[in-house]
Automatic annotation (TrEMBL):
<keyword id="KW-0677">Repeat</keyword>
<dbReference type="InterPro" id="IPR007111">
    <property type="entry name" value="NACHT_NTPase"/>
</dbReference>
<feature type="domain" description="NACHT">
    <location>
        <begin position="188"/>
        <end position="346"/>
    </location>
</feature>
<feature type="repeat" description="WD">
    <location>
        <begin position="922"/>
        <end position="963"/>
    </location>
</feature>
<dbReference type="InterPro" id="IPR031359">
    <property type="entry name" value="NACHT_N"/>
</dbReference>
<dbReference type="Pfam" id="PF17100">
    <property type="entry name" value="NACHT_N"/>
</dbReference>
<keyword id="KW-0853">WD repeat</keyword>
<protein>
    <recommendedName>
        <fullName>NACHT domain-containing protein</fullName>
    </recommendedName>
</protein>
<dbReference type="InterPro" id="IPR011047">
    <property type="entry name" value="Quinoprotein_ADH-like_sf"/>
</dbReference>
<dbReference type="InterPro" id="IPR015943">
    <property type="entry name" value="WD40/YVTN_repeat-like_dom_sf"/>
</dbReference>
<dbReference type="Pfam" id="PF00400">
    <property type="entry name" value="WD40"/>
</dbReference>
<dbReference type="Pfam" id="PF24883">
    <property type="entry name" value="NPHP3_N"/>
</dbReference>
<dbReference type="InterPro" id="IPR027417">
    <property type="entry name" value="P-loop_NTPase"/>
</dbReference>
<dbReference type="InterPro" id="IPR056884">
    <property type="entry name" value="NPHP3-like_N"/>
</dbReference>
<dbReference type="InterPro" id="IPR001680">
    <property type="entry name" value="WD40_rpt"/>
</dbReference>
Length: 1124
C-alpha cells in the first residue's frame, strides 16, 4: 500500500506542475515556423504523459472503492504492480524532459539566430545609411554645374525654344539616320555647324527637350549634355565639362556611383580639385559607361568651339576635350552604345578633330547651307506680342515686323538685339532705328555701341565702359555685388541702370553678369580701343590695383562673424551683408591679373612691390581666412609660389601654409589660433600677426624656435615602402615608387592624387623636355611610358634580353636608354624602335644616365663609360674612382650638373666630383653614400647615405652649406625645378621634403634681385633709371642694375635707413638713418662708398632735403617751412 500512496502523491504533484508549465513551454508565441513541427511532436508526448498520469489516478480510485480485504490481498500479492505503473509514468516523464531540453536548446539557438539576423539587418541598414551619406558627399564634391539648371537659365533669359524653328532639323535625313540606333551603319557623331548668332544653343535646348519628352519610348537613350560657354573656367574648362557630365549621369543613374566611390574614398575631394582632375576621372567615366546595366547614351556638347585649353593645342580648344571625344567614340567597349551630338561654329580645328575621331561614322548639318529665313521669320513673329504691348498703333508693329524680316539676314541674335532696342524707344522712332541698323552682326554691335556713347549718355558711358572691360578681362562672371565694388559708381548712379544700358552686350542671371552672346564679347575684345586706349597689360594692371584696394578696405578677421573659433567650414554660414560677397572674385583672381600685367616685365615697379609687401604684412591671414570661406584655399599656395622670389616675407608664409593649410581649410578661424600658437617663435607670420591671437592663448609658447628643415614626410600607403622618387619638370607633381604601386602626389600639398598599380618599380624618371614618365615593371620586364598630361599609357619597351634594371631619358629629348646586366640599349621614343644596343658587363649593380651632350653613360666592370648617342660606340671619356683595386670603389652612379660643368661619381665608399673642363677634383667625400643629386640651377650638390646626414654643398666654393639631420638612411635624392626643396626617399620607405631655400638665399644673393633674404623697407629708383636702391631690415643698403638684375654693391649701415634720395644725375644717394637724425650719409651710387657724413643743426625729420643740378655741380639743399 505504501507504493500506492507514494505513487498517488507523486502523480498529483506532477499533474499540478505540468498543468502550470505546459502553456508556457509550448505556447505558440514561443515558437516560430522552423520549430512548429517539433512543437507538435512535444504536444503529442505531453498528451501521452498526461494519459499515463490520469490512468494511474483513475486506477487508484477504482482500487480504493473495491472490497478492502480483497484490495489488501491483491496488494500483498502485488497483482496491481503499482511500482511498475509508476515507473512507466516516470519513464514517460524522463523522455519528455529530454525532448523538452532539446527543444529549448534549439529554441535558444533559433532565437539567437533571429537576433543575429536582426542585428545584421540593423548593421546593414546603418552601413547603407552611411554609404548613402557618403554617396551624397561624393556627389557634392563632384558637382560643378547642373546642366539641367543651365537649361532653365537659358530659357529664363531667352524664352522657351520655339519648336517650329528647330523642327526642320528633326526631319532631316541626317538626323533621322543618326538617331537610328538599330542600323549598324548609323553614324556615331552628328555635328551641327553654324555661324555665330544662328540659334544653335536654343536649337540644342529644343532638341534635348524633344528627346527627353518622349517618355513612351522604352528604348530611349540616356541623355547627358553640357552647354559650353566662353565666360570662365567653370563653363569652358574640360575638367568642368567632364565633372558635370559625370554628375548628371550619376544623378540619373545613382547605382553607377559604385565605380567612383573607391577612387573618392582613397583621395577624398582632392580627386576633383587637383590640376590633373580631368586625367584622373576620365577612366572612371569610361567604366561608368561600360556598366552592363547602363543602356545607350547620347552625349550632347553645345558650342564646342567655346571650349578653352592651352593655346597651342587644337587651336586653343585643348587636348583634353579631344581625349574625351576619343574615349566616347573610339573605345571598343563603349563606342557601340554611345553617340555624340555637337554644335559649333565652323572651325578647321574641330573639323579636323572630327575626321580624325570618326572618319567614316560622322555626318554634318551645315546651317549655312540651309535657308534660315523661315525659322528667323517665325522668331520675328514671336516678337510681335512684345512689340504690340509697347506700340501705340498696330501699323507701327506691322511695319516693324516687315522691316525686320527684310533686314534680318541669317542670325537670330541680330533680331533679338534690334527688338531689344525697339522696346526701349517710342514706336514712332522704330522706323528710323530699323533703317539705321546695319544688316551685319558686327556692324550692328558698332551701331549699338555708338548709341551707348551718345552725348545724352555721356555720364553713363564711362561706367558702361568699365563694366564691359571687366567682363571682357575677368576669369569668371562677376556678381552684381562684385561688379558694383569694382565700378564704385556714385550714390546717384545705379549699377542696375549701368548694366541695363549695356543689355545689348550683357545679361544678368541670378545676380551675375554674363555676356549676352559670345559674338558680343568677341567684338569688344577685337575693338577694345573703342572702350580704352590702354593695352591689355595696362588694363589688367588697373584691375590688380583696384583688387588690392578693395581687399585692403574689406578684409578683416572673422568675415562671417562666426560664433567661435572651432566652427568648421561646413558649418560656416555667410551673413546676408558680408563684405566678402563683394570681393570674392578679387581674393581669388588678383594674382591672375598680376601675371597678365607686371610679371611680364623684366623688373617690377617699386610701387608694385611695396603695395604687395604691405598687403601681405597687413592682410595675409585675413586673405587666407577669406579663401578658406570661399573654398579656394589652394589658390594661396599657387600665389605664394608665383611671388616667392619677389617678397622675402612669403618665404616664411610658404612654410606657414605648407604646415597649416589643412587646418585653415577645415576651420577658417583657426587661422588666428592654432596656427599662431604652433608656428615657430621666429616665424615672420607669427611675429607679424601676434596681436591676432586670442588673449587666452597668449601665454602658450611654441614648441620650436624656427621652422624645421623637414617640411613634410609622406609615409607609404601599402605594405611596402617607397624606394625611388622623381619630380616632374614643372615641379608640380611628385611620383614615388613602392613594391605595389607608383603613387602620384601634389608637390605643393603632399596629397595623393593618383595611384598607378604596378609591381616592383626600382626605376622611375621624368623626361626633361616632355611630360613623359618611365616606370620599369619587374613582373613584365618592360619599361612603360606614361603621358603625365593625360595620365595615359602610351608605350611599352621590352628589352631583347627580357631584363631591365635601370632607365633614363635623354636630356635632349626624343630618346630613352635602358640597362640590364647584359646590354645597354637606346630607344627612339616616337617609334619605340631600338636605335642601338651594346653588350654590357656589370659586376656591382647596373645604372644608366646621360651626359649633357646626350651620350649614354653606364657602368662597365669597375668604371663608367660613355657611349655615343648616335652610334653607340664607346667614347674615349672613362670615369674611375681613386682606388680601382678595391671592388667597393667601383662606380655605382654618374650624375652630371645641368650646366655641364661637373660630374659626380659615386661608389660604395666615396663621392668624387670632377671639373669637366679641367679634369681636376673639386670634391672628394668618404662615406657609405647611396645617392647624389645636383640642383637644377647647378648651384647645389646633395649627398645622402646610410650613416651620415644629408649634406648640401656650394658648387661655387665647394663649402659645406647645410646638413639635414635625417633619422633614416637615404637611398634616393632629387631636386625639383624651383630649387627651394629637396626630396628624399629613405630605407624605411618614407619620402621626405626638405627646405633648402635658405641655402639658396645665403649662396645666391648677388645677381638676382628677386631673391632677397630680408624684408625690403624702402625702394628708390634713380632719375636716370640706371640704378635701384633698396634698404633692408638687416641694416643693409643694396644697389641693383635694373636692366640685368645684378647686385652692384651692398653697404652695411649699422642702423635702419628711414629714407633714400637720389641726385638728379643718379651719381649720389642720400640715406636718412634711424637714431642718427642729425647725421645723414651721402654715398656714391655706383660704388656704395660713403662720400660724406653731414652734421645738421636740427633733426632731418624737420628738414626737407633736395638735390639741385646747377652749372657749378650737384648741390644738396635742406630747407624748413619754405626757408632755405
Amino acid at each position: 500500500m505504501t507504493a500506492l500512496y507514494n505513487g498517488i502523491a507523486y502523480v498529483n504533484e506532477r499533474i499540478l506542475w505540468y498543468s502550470n508549465m505546459t502553456d508556457r513551454l509550448l505556447s505558440p508565441r514561443n515558437s516560430n515556423t522552423p520549430l512548429e513541427q517539433v512543437r507538435e511532436f512535444l504536444d503529442s508526448n505531453m498528451l501521452d504523459l498526461y494519459q499515463s498520469l490520469l490512468f494511474y489516478q483513475i486506477k487508484s480510485v477504482c482500487f480504493y472503492y473495491r472490497n478492502q480485504l480483497w484490495a489488501v490481498l491483491r496488494s500483498m500479492a502485488d497483482l496491481d504492480d503499482w511500482n511498475g505503473e509508476l515507473s512507466a509514468v516516470t519513464e514517460s516523464e524522463v523522455k519528455l524532459h529530454r525532448d523538452l531540453n532539446l527543444y529549448k536548446l534549439e529554441q535558444m539557438n533559433n532565437d539567437f539566430e533571429n537576433l543575429s539576423n536582426e542585428f545584421r539587418q540593423f548593421s546593414m541598414a546603418q552601413i547603407e545609411r552611411g554609404n548613402l551619406r557618403e554617396d551624397k558627399q561624393c556627389m557634392k564634391d563632384l558637382f560643378k554645374i547642373d546642366p539641367r539648371a543651365e537649361i532653365r537659365e537659358i530659357q529664363k533669359a531667352k524664352g522657351e525654344p520655339i519648336r517650329e524653328i528647330y523642327d526642320w532639323i528633326l526631319k532631316t535625313e541626317k538626323f533621322e539616320r543618326f538617331m537610328n540606333w538599330e542600323n549598324p551603319e548609323s553614324p556615331s557623331l552628328l555635328k551641327i555647324n553654324g555661324q555665330a548668332g544662328t540659334g544653335k544653343t536654343m536649337m540644342s535646348v529644343g532638341l534635348i527637350q524633344e528627346l527627353l519628352g518622349d517618355i513612351s519610348d522604352v528604348d530611349r537613350p540616356e541623355i547627358i549634355y553640357f552647354f559650353i560657354q566662353d565666360i570662365g573656367e567653370e563653363f569652358n574648362n574640360s575638367a568642368s565639362i567632364l565633372r558635370s557630365l559625370m554628375w548628371l549621369l550619376l544623378a540619373q543613374n545613382p547605382a553607377l556611383i559604385s565605380h567612383l566611390r573607391p577612387h573618392y574614398d582613397q583621395t577624398g575631394p582632392a580627386l576633383f580639385q587637383n590640376s590633373q582632375c580631368f586625367a584622373d576621372i576620365l577612366p572612371i567615366f569610361r567604366t561608368m559607361l561600360q556598366d552592363t546595366d547602363l543602356g545607350r547614351v547620347l552625349v550632347i556638347f553645345d558650342a564646342l568651339d567655346e571650349c578653352k585649353g592651352p593655346a597651342n593645342e587644337f587651336g586653343g580648344l585643348g587636348r583634353d576635350i579631344f581625349d574625351l571625344l576619343n574615349e566616347l567614340l573610339q573605345h571598343d567597349e563603349i563606342s557601340s552604345k554611345i553617340k555624340v551630338l555637337i554644335t559649333t561654329r565652323p572651325l578647321l580645328e574641330i573639323d579636323t578633330m572630327v575626321r580624325r575621331l570618326s572618319p567614316h561614322s560622322n555626318v554634318t548639318i551645315q546651317l549655312d547651307d540651309h535657308s534660315l529665313s523661315g525659322p528667323i521669320n517665325i522668331f520675328i513673329e514671336y516678337q510681335r506680342r512684345s512689340l504690340e504691348a509697347q506700340a501705340g498703333k498696330q501699323i507701327n508693329v506691322d511695319n516693324a515686323i516687315q522691316q525686320l524680316k527684310e533686314n534680318a539676314g541669317r542670325t537670330f541674335i541680330w533680331v533679338y538685339l534690334v527688338c531689344d532696342q525697339l522696346l526701349q524707344l517710342d514706336s514712332g522712332q522704330w522706323k528710323q532705328t530699323l533703317e539705321n541698323a546695319p544688316p551685319k552682326l558686327e556692324s550692328l554691335y558698332q551701331f549699338l555701341l555708338d548709341r551707348l556713347s551718345a552725348p545724352a549718355q555721356s555720364r553713363w558711358f564711362g561706367y558702361c565702359k568699365k563694366v564691359l572691360l571687366i567682363v571682357m578681362l575677368a576669369y569668371r562672371p562677376l556678381t552684381l555685388k562684385e561688379m558694383e565694388a569694382f565700378i564704385d559708381p556714385p550714390s546717384d548712379i545705379s549699377l542696375a541702370k549701368i548694366v541695363q544700358d549695356c543689355r545689348s552686350f550683357l545679361v544678368v542671371h541670378q545676380d551675375t553678369v554674363f555676356p549676352i552672346h559670345k559674338s558680343a564679347i568677341d567684338y569688344i575684345r577685337k575693338n577694345r580701343e573703342v572702350l580704352s586706349h590702354s593695352s591689355f597689360d595696362e588694363l589688367h594692371h588697373e584691375i590688380l590695383q583696384r583688387a588690392l584696394a578693395l581687399m585692403t578696405g574689406s578684409l578683416r578677421r572673422n568675415m562671417y562673424d562666426l560664433a567661435c573659433h572651432g566652427v568648421s567650414i561646413e558649418e560656416a554660414q555667410a551673413p546676408g551683408l558680408s563684405s566678402l560677397h563683394s570681393i570674392g572674385y578679387f581674393c581669388q583672381h588678383w594674382i591672375d591679373h598680376l601675371k597678365e600685367s607686371r610679371l611680364k616685365d623684366p623688373v617690377l615697379q617699386d610701387s608694385d612691390i611695396l603695395n604687395l609687401d604691405k598687403f601681405f604684412h597687413v592682410h595675409f591671414l585675413h586673405w587666407l581666412e577669406a579663401l578658406s570661406l570661399l573654398h579656394v584655399l589652394p589658390v594661396a599656395m599657387d600665389t605664394v609660389n608665383d611671388l616667392l622670389s619677389l617678397l622675402p616675407f612669403l618665404i616664411d608664409a610658404k612654410r606657414f601654409l605648407a604646415r597649416f593649410s589643412p587646418i585653415i581649410a577645415e576651420a577658417p578661424l583657426q587661422t588666428y589660433v592654432s596656427t599662431l600658437v604652433f608656428a615657430p617663435e621666429e616665424s615672420k607670420v607669427r611675429e607679424n600677426f601676434h596681436n591676432d591671437k586670442p588673449h587666452w592663448v597668449s601665454r602658450v609658447r611654441p614648441s620650436d624656435s624656427r621652422w624645421s628643415t623637414l617640411i613634410r614626410s609622406i609615409q607609404p600607403q601599402g605594405w611596402t615602402g617607397y624606394y625611388s622618387v622623381a619630380v616632374s619638370p614643372k615641379g608640380d607633381i611628385m611620383v614615388a615608387a613602392s613594391g605595389e604601386s607608383v603613387d602620384v602626389f601634389n608637390m605643393a600639398t603632399g596629397t595623393l592624387v593618383r595611384r598607378l598599380k604596378t609591381d616592383s618599380s626600382p626605376s622611375i624618371s621624368f623626361s626633361p623636355c616632355e611630360e613623359l614618365l618611365s616606370i620599369y615593371s619587374a613582373k613584365d620586364r618592360m619599361v612603360n611610358i606614361w603621358d603625365t598630361s593625360r595620365w595615359k599609357h602610351v608605350k611599352a619597351l621590352v628589352n631583347p634580353d627580357k631584363e631591365t634594371l635601370d632607365c633614363a631619358f635623354s636630356p635632349l629629348g626624343g630618346a630613352i636608354a635602358t640597362a640590364s646586366s647584359k646590354k645597354i640599349t637606346l630607344w627612339e621614343l616616337a617609334t619605340g624602335n631600338v636605335v642601338w644596343s651594346r653588350p654590357h658587363r656589370s659586376e656591382f649593380g647596373v645604372f644608366v644616365s646621360f651626359s649633357p651632350e646626350g651620350h649614354v653613360v653606364s657602368d662597365f666592370q669597375h668604371e663608367a663609360r660613355l657611349y655615343h648617342r648616335d652610334s653607340g660606340h664607346p667614347v674615349s671619356t672613362v670615369f674611375r674612382m681613386r682606388s680601382v683595386e678595391d671592388s667597393s670603389d667601383s662606380v655605382r652612379t654618374v650624375s652630371y650638373s645641368k650646366n655641364g660643368s661637373w660630374v659626380a661619381l659615386r661608389s660604395r665608399n666615396e663621392v668624387r666630383v670632377l671639373n669637366l673642363s679641367s679634369g681636376d677634383d673639386e670634391l672628394s667625400e668618404s662615406g657609405d653614400f647611396r645617392c647624389v643629386a645636383f640642383s637644377p640651377d647647378s648651384r647645389l650638390l646633395a649627398i645622402g647615405g646610410l650613416r651620415d646626414p644629408i649634406r648640401i654643398w656650394d658648387t661655387k666654393t665647394w663649402n659645406l652649406l647645410q646638413t639635414l639631420e635625417a633619422t633614416d638612411f637615404m637611398i634616393d635624392l632629387v631636386f625639383p625645378a624651383n630649387n627651394q626643396v629637396l626630396v628624399s626617399a629613405s630605407l624605411s620607405g618614407n619620402v621626405s621634403i626638405w627646405d633648402v631655400a635658405s641655402v639658396n638665399l645665403r649662396d645666391g644673393q648677388e645677381g638676382d634681385p628677386r631673391i632677397i633674404p630680408t624684408e625690403v623697407l624702402l625702394v628708390q629708383y634713380s632719375p636716370t633709371g640706371k640704378c635701384v636702391a633698396s634698404a633692408h631690415d638687416n641694416n643693409k643698403l643694396a644697389a641693383w642694375d635694373p636692366d640685368t638684375g645684378k647686385v652692384a654693391h651692398t653697404r652695411e649701415l649699422g642702423v635702419l635707413a628711414k629714407n633714400l634720395l637720389f641726385s638728379p644725375d643718379g651719381e649720389h644717394l642720400l640715406a636718412y638713418l634711424e637714431h642718427k637724425f642729425r647725421k645723414p650719409l651721402v654715398l656714391n651710387a655706383k660704388t656704395g662708398e660713403i662720400e660724406q657724413e653731414i652734421l645738421l643743426d636740427m633733426p632731418l625729420s624737420a628738414l626737407k632735403p633736395c638735390f639741385l643740378d646747377t652749372p657749378g655741380g650737384i648741390w644738396l639743399e635742406m630747407h624748413q617751412s619754405g626757408h632755405r
